[in-house]
Write a structure and sequence with these properties.
90% helix; rod-shaped; mainly alpha; 5 helices
Length: 131
């Protein structure tokens, strides 16, 4: 009989503890490591811009910028989990944008060099025929 009266109390108490733990875990704030991740993401974004990602890889660059905004919003709400996830993804997208931009830039240089090579070959052939 006593156990039946205590059961609702323990159930309510257990639910209270559960939600208290969840709210505590969510409100832990932003750690220094998470702040560093955010700083690294911003640096990666700047590096992508310097590599002309706007020209060569606008989509991943825009995604990185959007994710940094999401991270800043999560910081305002002290949501460490969302802040960390958005920061990591922003860094990954920024690094992807930079890599694509560098690759496409090198492809352009290679195409220009190939064009110069073809012109030189044509000039050599022209000179051979003139002899």
């Amino acid at each position: 009989m006593l156990a039946q009266r205590l059961f609702p109390f323990w159930m309510v108490f257990s639910i209270f503890l559960f939600f208290s733990y969840i709210s505590f875990a969510a409100a832990q704030g932003i750690s220094p490591a998470q702040e560093q991740e955010f700083t690294d993401a911003k640096a990666a974004l700047e590096a992508a811009k310097k590599a002309q990602a706007e020209k060569y890889s606008a989509e991943p660059l825009n995604k990185a910028q959007d994710l940094l905004i999401t991270a800043e919003n999560a910081r305002a709400f002290k949501d460490g989990i969302k802040f960390a996830q958005a920061s990591r993804l922003a860094r990954a997208y920024a690094e992807l944008a930079k890599s694509i931009a560098e690759l496409k830039s090198e492809e352009e240089k290679l195409a220009a060099a190939n064009e110069q090579l073809q012109k030189a070959k044509a000039e050599i052939e022209r000179l051979k025929k003139a002899e």
